[in-house]
Amino acid sequence: MTTARKSAATAKAAPIKKSASIQEDRHFVVALARGLELLACFRQRDRLLGNQELAQRCGLAKSTVSRLTFTLTKLGYLTHVEEAGKYGLGTATLSLGSAMLGRLDIRKLAHPLMQELADFSRCLVSLASRDRLSMIFIDTARGSAAVTLSLDTGSRIQLITSATGRAYLAAVSEQVRNKAVEGARHKVDAARWPDIERGVAQALIDLHQLGVCCSFGDWHHDVNSIAVAVRPGGGLPPMAISCGAPASIGSREFLLKEVRPRLIALAAGLEKALGTSG
Question: For residue 221, how far is the Cα from the chain centroid?
């Protein structure tokens, strides 16, 4: 397994840090929030997780997790594998994901355009949406050399170091961006933070000067990527379309000179088709 594959495979769920104002809201149902947090702990490569693993990921007491897994199993959102003493996602979660993906018209319109760009660039072209401190791929198109990235629909990459995440951050309000960056500060090595913070600031400059956001070795030292935000409409927040590959395939020069104009045109055409341009 390549290092890039390991980076995607070992992504963990970060516990939701609720502000005091949310916790004090009388309409906020803590038990429901905890159950949803627990389901969010599962990642694409997690077939089974035990109560101890879930407790560590959620930041909850094991006794609380035990009650949640029991309840979610009864409702079909989890399935219990007795011989392993662990849990996997149940079929009830599939209906939720299918319902959400089904209403994303952008996926149907974007995929053939993404595949065309992937074939030209030999890179991985992805459409992603934010989930907490990650960007989650909701569709991918694979070029002939993209297999080494080992990323697919459902994969997650870091919000603040990836071109995909930076394109999202550049598209949202300053308030939303600052809150996301501040939340990420506590999840990374303090020694790396100045470089990461500069990378986020540079994304705004890159968007203004180049029309895309970049990550050349920031998410992973051997991976280059560029991305641009798209507005899907339907009251949904901005998403991002990226094109990336190992540096040996997708050099900085190639991505900026050959891929960049095509990626910008793809996003513009997509927004026009969705009626969100302008």
Answer: 19
| Separation of alpha carbons 138 and 130, rounded Å | 10
CA-CA distance, 211 to 263, in Å (whole number)? 10
DSSP state of 225: E
Average per-residue pLDDT in the chain?
Answer: 87
Whether the CB-CB separation of 122 and 145 falls below 8 Å is answered with: yes
Higher-pLDDT residue of 81 and 145 is: 81
Q: Say how many CA atoms lie within 13 Å of 261 toward its Cβ.
A: 4
Q: Are 54 and 73 in contact (CB under 8 A)?
A: no
Q: 276 with 267: CB under 8 angstroms?
A: no
Q: How far apart are CA 12 and CA 230, in angstroms?
A: 26
Supply the angle between the helices 163-171 and 174-185 in degrees, to the nearest 10.
Answer: 140
> Strand, helix or coil at 217?
coil
